[in-house]
Amino acid sequence: MANAPAAAPAAEEGGEVEAKPKKPIVKIILGVVGLIVLLAGTVFGTLFFSGYFNPKPPVDPDAAEAADGHGGGHGKKDGKDAKDAKPSKLAKKTPESARFEYTYMQIEKDFLVNIMGSKKVMSISLAVMTHYDERVFANVKKHDFALRSAVLDILRQVPEADVNKPEFRVELARKIRDAMNTLLEKYEDFGGIEEVLYTNFVIQ
Predict the structure, then answer these.
(1) Are 204 and 115 in contact (CB under 8 A)?
(2) H helices of 15-97, where?
(3) Which residues of 129-139 are buried (b: 16+ CB within 10 A; e: fewer)?
(4) Is 200 helix (H, G, I), strand (E, B) or coil?
(5) Could you say which architecture CATH assigns to the domain 61-203?
(6) Using only C-alpha atoms, what is the Rg of the chain?
(7) Backbone torsions φ then ψ of 89, nearest 5 degrees
(8) In this model, does residue 179 exceed pLDDT 90?
(9) For the whole model, what pTM was predicted?
(10) What is the pLDDT of residues 74-97, one digit of tens each?
(11) Does the pLDDT at position 142 exceed 80?
């Protein structure tokens, strides 16, 4: 009697070989990457909607100075009341924030002196200009006698040879302005006179 055929392997009876499961490490990596992307998106969205990336408006230092009452010149010493603060700049009512209002005041009395080393007489009238507030003019009026004395001292030292120089009047006005500011800074801790102008100038 012939031997019976051997049984087929169990794998062949099933028809397919069972696939091996994927390793869990791939799922862990994908989960971590997804979490990082989610956190980054949340942080960026929070900063964006809070206005963090919006450009900040520029700050005008002159306007900030004027608002704080800290215009140019020397201010009052620390510890003084607000009413003793130095004058502030008067801003023009225009969109140009860097421009300021200029105001003028006429010195009431003329200045009359003899020119040094000459028989000629010099008579001048002066006005002062500032872009600070009215306290500058109030200080000029307050110290009128001291300012007149300082101006007369300068005029008495003018030699006749300087009178005919092209820049004589410009240099003289500059000297007078500096002398007036120095005196006001001495008594009020602030000058504020920007220019000295002639409203009358006679040499005869």
Answers:
(1) no
(2) 25-49, 61-68
(3) ebbbbebbbeb
(4) strand
(5) 2-Layer Sandwich (3.30)
(6) 43
(7) -70, 145
(8) yes
(9) 0.55
(10) 444 444 454 556 676 665 554 444
(11) yes
